[in-house]
Design goal:
437 residues; 2 domains; 7-stranded parallel beta sheet; 5-stranded mixed beta sheet; 17 strands; 24% helix; protease
Length: 437
């Protein structure tokens, strides 16, 4: 995993020694609100501050979907719907760009680009689910359960759909666009044959076809069908069964990607009016990223809610509670923790960390989750906060259909609708996400 330091002051770095060198050779500039308002100003800022001659912009591409291979030859890239730019620079040139940015009010932060990773926990787990952990101090909301609860997959549906009340909801996500940004989707999977799907790859040299499996699993949980076509009697595993699916491949088949990949896909999703953007990805970096916090807030302002996996860096059985990493630790991005089938916190699920925005916001099923997998395996049961996140994203689509809420209003609706648990708020936030009745 990559690491970072906390930016001083307003997030600028004055010289190369004050910040880690970008592992990709690119640096991310966050533009002020005034600059964000005009794309021409964003381009001009990259040219004057970043010394860029050839600037690519997301607005130059159909559906605002950046072609990363075509844009690779540019000196810089503007993500016009986000108010973010990237510039390529070696460490010496990066130092001069940072010095110029520190004096320019059009730039509010400059950060080195980082790698992000698919966030799965133990795969194909066979161990018994852990018991629910009871808080020893009053660290968050709690409610008294009449008796211990444990859910199991049945021939009709997964335990996650049962626990979140999805099976009792009349909402289907009809008319709501959900973007899943991950390793892509297996387009040959029969369970998605009759769905409206738009797929784009933002990874250089790779098609949107999923060669990893993580993305197909997440798409299945968030938006899988109500009645899987084959084999007969297959259990239901998908939440928003009639939502319109946008698949953005931002992580390569090896499970990693860059900020450029992710920002390009978020820009595409926002530009195409996605109400929910699901990201089961991140990095073990404690400090809040100014780029992702700015993007999260601007997405909310446009009516798009970004939901992200909190992280799997905990080992609670050995006393390590972990911490919420980037980008889920951004205050304007909803951070999701993982629960087991007894509604206890998963051993690997990260706890809130004491940075502004580093808290868990909500929880969902994330242990032994059954969903789609690339053919010929077809289905697989895996664990992780990555598996909890699409539960919340699908439930968000249900609430969006039911209430027409968007952005901050949709965030508030999800939090109000959550069921409180006998667990600390630092572990599960508002509790388990629940579908509208």
């Amino acid at each position: 995993m990559t690491s970072s330091t906390t930016p001083p002051g307003n997030g600028h770095y004055a010289d190369a020694s004050a910040q880690p060198v970008s592992p990709t050779g690119r640096y991310v500039l966050v533009f002020s609100d005034d600059t964000f308002a005009r794309e021409t100003d964003q381009v001009e800022t990259l040219r004057s501050v970043g010394g860029a001659v050839n600037v690519a912009s997301t607005s130059d591409y159909e559906w605002r979907a950046l072609n990363v291979d075509q844009a690779a030859s540019a000196d810089a890239t503007v993500f016009a719907d986000l108010g973010i730019g990237t510039v390529t620079a070696d460490p010496d040139r990066a130092a001069s760009i940072m010095a110029a940015a520190a004096e320019d009010p059009r730039v509010t932060a400059i950060e080195p680009e980082q790698y992000m990773y698919a966030l799965s926990g133990p795969e194909d787990t066979q161990a018994e689910p852990s018991t629910a952990r009871t808080p020893t101090t009053d660290t968050g909301w709690s409610t008294v359960r009449a008796a211990p609860v444990e859910f199991h997959d049945t021939s009709e549906a997964t335990w996650g759909l049962q626990a979140t009340g999805v099976l009792d909801s009349a909402a289907t996500g009809q008319g709501i666009r959900v973007a899943v940004l991950d390793t892509g989707l297996d387009s040959s999977h029969p369970d998605f044959a009759d769905r409206e799907i738009s797929a784009r790859s933002f990874v250089s040299g790779e098609a949107a076809q999923d060669g990893n499996g993580h993305g197909t699993h997440c798409v299945g949980t968030s938006c899988g069908p109500e009645n899987p076509p084959e084999p007969p009697g297959s259990r239901r595993y998908g939440v928003a069964t009639r939502a319109e699916i946008l698949v953005g491949k931002v992580l390569g088949d090896g499970g990693s990607g860059t900020d450029t990949n992710i920002l390009a896909a978020i820009n595409w999703a926002i530009g195409n009016d996605c109400r929910v953007i699901s990201m089961s990805l991140g990095a073990d970096i404690r400090a809040v990223s100014r780029r992702y916090e700015t993007v999260g807030q601007r997405a909310l302002n446009r009516g798009s809610l970004i939901v992200a996996a909190a992280g799997n860096n905990a080992d609670r059985d050995s006393g390590n509670p972990g911490f919420v990493g980037v980008p889920a630790n951004s205050p304007s991005i909803m951070a999701v923790a993982a629960l087991d089938s007894r509604l206890g916190i998963a051993d690997f699920s990260a706890r809130s960390n004491p940075v502004d925005g580093g808290q868990i916001d909500i929880a969902a099923p994330g242990v032994e989750v059954y969903s789609t997998w690339p053919m010929d395996r077809r289905y697989r049961t895996i664990s992780g906060t990555s598996m909890a996140t699409p539960h919340v994203s699908g439930i968000a689509a249900l609430w969006a259909q039911r209430t027409d809420a968007a952005g901050e209003a949709l965030w508030s609706t999800l939090i109000r609708g959550a069921q409180r648990l006998e667990l600390p708020g630092v572990d599960v936030g508002a509790g388990i996400a629940k579908a509208p009745s």
